[in-house]
Amino acid sequence: MSAPTPLALFNGSYLSERPTGIGVVARELVAALDPALVPLLDPLDGERPGSVAIPDDLSPEQGRAGHMRRLIWTQRQLPKLMRASGAPLLLSPLPEAPLLVGVRSIVLAHDLLPLRYPQLTPLLAYHLAYVPLVLHRALRVLCNSEATAREVHGRLGVPLRRLVPIRLGFNPGQLRPLGLERQPFFLVLGRHDPHKNLERVLRAFAALADREHRLTLVGPHDRRYTPKLQRLALELGIAGRCDWLPWVSDQERLQLLNRCRALVLVSLWEGFGLPALEAMACGAPVIAARAGALAEVVGEAALLVEPRSVPAIAAAMGALIREPALAARLAEAGFARAAHFRWSDTARQVEGLLRELS
Predict the structure, then answer these.
(1) By the 8 A CB rule, do 346 and 313 touch?
(2) Which ranges in 162-249 belong to alpha helices (H)?
(3) pLDDT per residue over 225-248, tens digit each?
(4) Measured between alpha carbons, how far is 153 from 129 in angstroms, rounded to an integer?
């Protein structure tokens, strides 16, 4: 029996050995898709059936040079791979696609944070010009939340008929309750960019009457922001109770989510908020901001706070220290809420869309 014609090629150029954010979404989404229908362009030399090897120096792990190599590869080499495969569509887990050669693309939009909070960096033109152009030219834009869909339409004018909200998911094999005793530390997962609101998290933590708890911050260090945050921790007298980890393995992440008092995710904006879902899947209480898509993700299964209010963040942290019954209720509600987010459901929705457009 001959192999089925692929519906699309999956753009795996962003994948890396140490994925965060978009890389995690890309890894989990492609794992849930049928490899016969959606072959992977694979930089990691994995064992996924039907995958096509591509260079391994295109990911964010390679820094700015990797980013530029990926953009050039996308425009020059990716169209050739599309033609060779016979696939009618490109499925990209981020808004990157060839622009000038008629490749029909479906791309995933995670957020428009670089436009909402612009930073003067060499990548500003990428966010201001290239990404909007990709979104406008795509056949469909998958949006990881209703909030992201509204922003892509409102800020960039992409027609609503081409926006398809999807739910992200989590891997229950990697993220699950372990039945461990909760320990006296709060957990933060994410980058140190200003919109992550970590200055207010530090101030809220410093305001707690409790002095036994620690604050564990897991996320890549950024020379623009991390030193300032660490100096603030020193000024607030909490530096000795803050642990800064640039990256953790999947197993270490599982342990942290199962041992923390709670996850604190009080960003000024999130297009989805994957750490909140991961925490709920592990039975960890969540403190989340009333901003962006976070309320969509957590529903009523988290403590929602105004992200610009340090007293509100501190009050939520204090409540989870003092009230074990509240923490237990949130853990149970969060685990039930997480059950509604499955990569298998996301994959079937995406495959249905690919069939419709092929």
Answers:
(1) no
(2) 198-207, 226-235
(3) 999 999 999 999 999 999 999 999
(4) 16
What is the C-alpha to C-alpha distance for residues 21 and 148, in angstroms, rounded to an integer? Answer: 15
- Looking up tokens 């849930």 gives 32
Q: Are 265 and 288 in contact, with CB atoms under 8 Å apart?
A: yes
Question: Average pLDDT over the chain, rounded to whole?
Answer: 96
| Inter-residue contact 92 to 58 (CB < 8 Å) | no
- Specify the DSSP class assigned to residue 6: P
Closest CA to 270 of 112, 128, 143, 149: 112
The strand ranges marked E within the chain are 9-11, 40-42, 52-53, 90-92, 105-109, 140-143, 163-165, 185-189, 214-218, 242-245, 262-265, 286-289, 303-305
CA atoms of 296 and 315, how far apart (whole Å)? 22
Q: Which residues pair with 53 in a beta bridge?
A: 42
Three-class DSSP category at 211 = coil
Residue 86 falls in which region: left (phi positive, over 0), alpha (psi -120 to 50) or beta: left
